[in-house]
Each structure stands twice: as structure tokens, then as C-alpha cells.
Amino acid sequence: MKSLLEQPNWHTTPMPQVPVTRAAAQKWLDAYVTAWKSYDERAIADLWSEAAVWHYPFQTRALGREEIVAEWMSERDAFVGESFDAKYYPVVVEGERVVAHGRTIFYEPGTDRVVTAYDNIWFLRFDDLGRCSEFHEWYPGRPEDEPDRAVPER
Fold first, then answer.
1. Which of 22, 38, 41, 69 gets the highest tally of CB atoms within 10 A of its CB?
2. For residue 143, is it left (φ>0), alpha (ψ between -120 and 50) or beta?
3. Is 96 helix (H, G, I), strand (E, B) or coil?
4. Tens digit of pLDDT per residue, the chain (154 long)?
5. Using CA of residue 87, residue 93, residue 95, residue 97, what is the dihedral sign?
């Protein structure tokens, strides 16, 4: 990319045209949450194609299944013992592409008091085995947790 206005190649990269069903997308999203909560390396690896790409805004976070699993495991200590829950839903399913929306909520340990929450949008592409080959995530926090993101009061 020469400019921040240019889009990464994932917008136009051809993929096998194996349609993903809404049910299969939901199953993958649920498995993602289960893998995150368990930090089971096999469960994490099973989500991703061999050459998967994990994108963050303005950057690539990890390339390939092995690197994605290593990246997840590098954050394990930050999440194990935390009290959190997450739920994601497919909003748009088109061919091998899925747009999902969901929330992740972190609680004060041992209570139902919300410490912070994130509102997530994910763009996903799947291979012919139902594994994610491209994962793009965007996640703003709640305005009360991140005041610089709050809509000004009128």
C-alpha cells in the first residue's frame, strides 16, 4: 500500500467459491469463543486454514495458522482467570464471506459488574473446509470506558 486510502488485497483476492451457510458461520463463531475461553491450542488451530491471515485495522497481526495460534497463546496470561463472555452472530453471509457482529464483555471477577465491553465487527473468509482464511476485526470500546470515543453531548 502506498497510501492509507488504498485498500489491502483482501478486497479483491479470489477464493474458492464454496458457500458458507449461516449455520456453519454461527458454529465457527461459537467455536471461536470456546477456543478463546479454553486456550486449547488444538481448538484454536482447528479454526484456521494453513495460510490464514489475521488483520487488525491498518496492519496484519499474524500470518498462517501456526503464527495465529502463537499470537493467541502469547495473550493467554492476560485472559486466563479473567471473567468475560462473548457472543457473535453472522449478519451477512455471501459465498465464502461472512460479516459478523458481536460483543465481548469483561466482568469484575466473581460479580456481574461490567468492567468494560467491546462492540465488534468481523469480516471473515472461509476455505472449502470451513476454516477461516481471512479474519479482519474492528472493536471499539464503550464510551464510558474510552471517553475519547464518546459522542459529545448536546
1. 69
2. alpha
3. coil
4. 466 566 666 555 655 567 899 999 999 999 999 998 898 999 999 999 999 999 988 889 999 999 999 998 998 887 777 788 999 999 999 999 999 999 999 898 888 899 888 899 999 999 999 999 999 999 877 667 666 555 556 5
5. negative
